[in-house]
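Title: Prediction job returns without error message
Component: structure pipeline
Severity: low
Priority: P3
Assignee: unassigned

Description:
Job completed but the reporter wants confirmation the result is attached to the right record. Sequence as submitted:
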Amino acid sequence: MGEAQPIFILPEGTTRNTGRDAQRNNIMAAKLVAETVRTTLGPKGMDKMIVDSLGDVTVTNDGVTILEEMQIEHPAAKMIVEIAKTQEDEVGDGTTTAVIIAGELLKNAETLLDKDVHPTVIARGYRLAAEKSIDILNNIAEDVNENDTEILKKLAMTAMTGKGAEANKELLADLVVKGVKQVLDENKGIAVDSIKVEKKVGNSVSDSELIQGILLDKERVHPGMPKKVKEAKILLIDAALEIKNPETDTKIQITSPKQMQDFVEQEEKILKGMADKVIATGANVVVCQKGIDDLVQYFLSKKGIYAVRRVSKSDMERVAKATGAKVVSKINEVSKEDLGRAGVVEEHKVGDEDMTYIKDCDEAKAVTLLIRGGSEHVIDEIERAVTDAVGDIRAALKNGKVVAGAGAPEIEVSRGLREYANTLSGREQLAVLAFAEAVEIVPRTLAENAGLDPIDMLTEMKVEHDKGNKWHGIDVFEGKVIDVWNNSVVEPLKIKTQAIQSASEVTELILRIDDVIAGSGKRNNMPSMPPGMGGMPEY
């Protein structure tokens, strides 16, 4: 017998990594993702500048923004980006924390793998540790409700510290808390779209303001309309105040000037009818989602009605929320009952654009934060910081629990896990200890980013926590360990629980992979040819 022919079960060009190689490769990729965002954590974290293929520049400190802009390709690294996205959707903040905990969990798992601990044992130990961590966090959390204005401000300020908004965090925190309180519903929930963040370049960040109502990026449609309407009665129309062209090609044959005249008059009559229906409702402000014909604009302006057109659907819904108006989809159905109320509707120049303010709404369940700043990049980063702050307050009020930040809760979790590990027998104990150590990456990174000695800081914190001071964390500005609860560093409990849960779940998933099969991509994209046609030419 000659030498056995090798058997290929995969198409040509497919690469395959198996066993330890596959694990090492995946862990390495995940660790690299964590390393990328690690330097942005905390008040002394630095920012990243990302330039995309079109030359657009993003300068940010926000974990999820960095990872999304980087367009990561590696499959295991993509899984880590996913947890940042989940964290963003669930809480709106803490994306960097979630990613670096995942990276550290994998790094510690690698050490255990080298000691021949089986991946499923590690995964099970991690699962036990994650459950225990959530219990510990729930036990140490403090209660909060919408009347604790001070705590809510601290939450907002903590979210903005270390981001571009830091210089004006007091003013912005004030606006955010006021806005959130305004739009709270009965169930302590805040609809995501109730707080609109509108950005306009110009002036400085300190000129940002909160508008009790909505700011529309639109100007009035006709110069004859009033610039300001007090005691506004607002009609929202999701229909075109114009005559649409027919969908299909249509020919109208006109043989005499009189027919032409009749045709034009008929058109005007229809448009005047539309305007009259609107006027009859008694509305003095019209917000239209579609177009408004020039003639209708003229009729409305003669009656002193303020109108804007082509307003986006989401803005229409916000105006409805703020003013209590109903959105009408048929012009024939409009009536007085559909009108909403606002104290003032006026046109203002913001920067170089005219915008419509709908404000002083009595029961506004929607508000607008107008953010100003010196340049596009500054404003974008402040918008991200403000969105994080809103997310934090929303998460804190939703489950009514907050914890101090600055690495304090992580040390508490790590302490609790070490005690818990002693109650376990078997190799899971090693995984729980690895988890306990991994969670400490948060205070360690905070210290490193601030140029402090992480070992000294962690040791000092552990001493304080052993004495029962659960809220002692790192003051990165002074380089000391202090009671951070009284020092205004407060975060929602949900940030911590979500980060630990997502990080441990993705780690367990990556640990179980022992075979990575990647297609070549070259052949798979070729259209399949019927037999006898000859294949595509090979290059």
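Comment from assignee: result matches the submitted record. Residues 472 and 482 are 5 Å apart (CA to CA).
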